[in-house]
Amino acid sequence: MKYVEEFRDAGLARGVAARIAAEADPGRSYRLMEFCGGHTHAIFRYGVQDLLPDSVRMIHGPGCPVCVLPIGRLEMAIDLARRPEVILCSYGDMLRVPASRKMTLLRARAEGADVRMVGSVDDALRLAQAHPDREVVFFAIGFETTTPPTAVALRRAEALGLANFSVLCNHVLTPAAITNILEAPAIRQMERVEIDGFLGPAHVSVVIGSQPYEFFAEEFGKPVVIAGFEPLDVMQSILMLVRQINEGRAEVENQYTRAVGRHGNAAAKALVAEVFELRRSFEWRGLGTVPYSALRLRARFARFDAEARFGLVQSDPPENRACACPQILRGAARPTDCALFGRQCTPQTPLGSCMVSDEGACAAYYRYGRRARGTEAPA
Amino acid sequence: MSGAPAPSGVVEMRHGAGGRDMTDLIAALFLSAFGGTGQEDQATLDLPPGRVALSTDGFVISPLFFPGGDIGTLAVNGTVNDIAMGGARPLALTAGFVLEEGFALADLARIARSMGQAARAAGVRIVAGDTKVVERGKGDGVFITTAGIGVVRDGACLSACNARPGDAVLVSGSMGDHGVAVMATRAGFDFETEVVSDCAALHDLAGALLDAAPGCRLMRDPTRGGLAAVLNEIAQASRVGIALHEARVPVRPGVRGACELLGLDPLYVANEGKLVAVLPAAEAEAGLAALHAHPLGREAAIVGEVRDDPDRFVEMETLLGGRRIVDWIAGEQLPRIC
Amino acid sequence: MCHAVPARVVEVLPDEHAIVEVSGTRKTVSTVLVGAVEPGDFVLVHVGFALGRVDPDEAEATLAALAEIGVVPGQAALP
Fold it and tell me: Which of A81, A89, B201, B226 is the most buried (most CB within 10 A)?
């Protein structure tokens, strides 16, 4: 696979690993946060941590749109799906995430709700055209990478004059979340962890460009390296961060030059700006309320806004009090520090946001990494 | 066999009522494809001496027809393979059909012919069967249940509990072909591929392997859940760990491409014409050579080894030389966008 | 978080779509976000849309840099 397999080469990986080991000062620690869940997945899936010296510690950030979606928002989708006139369209990632009382979209489907897995919002548009007697709702999730396709679909729905299509919008924004992590005050048990540098998301950056991260580098004095999606990209980016830290620099560097430019995709950004506007605040599961961190449909597209169309009200089910996701998402704790990890909370029975998706820190660690010794072997 | 015109019409409730219409349907579609007279309520067989192996499986797949096979070929080969994985020679199958009212008889005829062909290729006879019809909406076209009987070869003592530290783990060929071929035809996946299902009867391949490696501990076919599921089952049953080497697991480029686009891991994708074998280390090379010599085993590989592990993990050395656990997932792998 | 795959354009379709290919697997995607494409171009595909292009020269440059990083392991950084 072109531009994929070359960046998974074991020989090149060994070379980069040796260089990181040579240049990382064993007397200091390099705490590097990979913001993006896709990077978390790649790191675990390829065992990248095994190739890094002990002084380099990867901290897994909250860039997993499935993980940070509040249960209340998922329940809005489930409630909609249960209405007999509704066809609820969702990406595969959300189908097994549990809401209250272990209800999931798949379980709702088993109980009679019309839930359809789609690989593209275009599939939802086609369903709306094919079933004019039904209400087709698209459950939109994702960061800036996934938002432009939703915008395209809404423009198309407008052009077609579709009367039976709407979007339940949960699109969220990366820079706001990074700010939140860097600025979170010490509250009760939550500690702010010193993060020495960031691996910037690959495909969010294809859309927004490298320019938005310059703010973090300047304001907080943290280096950012925008890293491609493959394990060699991640490793080269880690080396670049180690060098910046060693040299006392705090700049935005772009490792993913084959896909990311400074200004990103202008057409995509313009389309998103035309269709969406900022919500003043949005609750992120695990992070709490984050201002100006999410999008909703503009007034022009109000008739396609499922929240308005169906008069949806968001509930606020409580989280498990022992869940350490708030600390884990900020890098203040590791999955194995959580009392529930591997016991009550597993990928089959996730209790907190970090376990609900393969990219969540806890799920990735449980599925791919070493489980803590002493947790029960499966029956 | 070919040359008879495809029947027209659809399955109706009368076809399941036990009367003449049912007898005529059975004769026209099933007996013509499987052989036999259909006059008795049971099949009586003379079995060669030895321990008897018995297996049954239900087939409810959708879509019914896919590149490389259909529900009929699966129904025959699936049960033949379950028998073969026990070190037994499959001898005879039964086939039960639950037909949905409205199902096209031409499609049913096609499925029956597939089953007949698959049975003949596998050297087994379909000797007994049953037909029922359910009302429209209560079935998915057709559900098929097959049961199979075979005789275990002398000296073979295969079990999922038999793996021991030091044993070698082999696969007979490329992983993920069947699952990708079927996914390409289902809604919500939206891709085209030239990958075809690997659906095949494995008893001959299994026999060749046992001839070369009589100390074989166990064989399993990695169907639903893929290689990952089978290895985890073995690790649990045998109370061992398994070390897997990603670079050695054969995966076709077409399967890689489809999995990459969908965000799927080929280790968890279904196969219908492959086997996993655990052999004593001393017999690994001989076993591999026997697989390579067989048309169904050209891409066979030694992919890992069994080891002591109280956690019973399946742990993989990745392409990069790092390590990761190959987890035993609860449900079906779904495509992801994140 | 955003699984996107580099894919090669094999055929341009009307209405701002194209057929792309990854290792023999083909998919129809929307190109409205990247503008005009030609067979042979590489794009990043996410949820059925081409989101951006992959620059072959930059890809080669990155691979060359990766190879160079490993050339002298354990020694001081190259100038």
Answer: A89
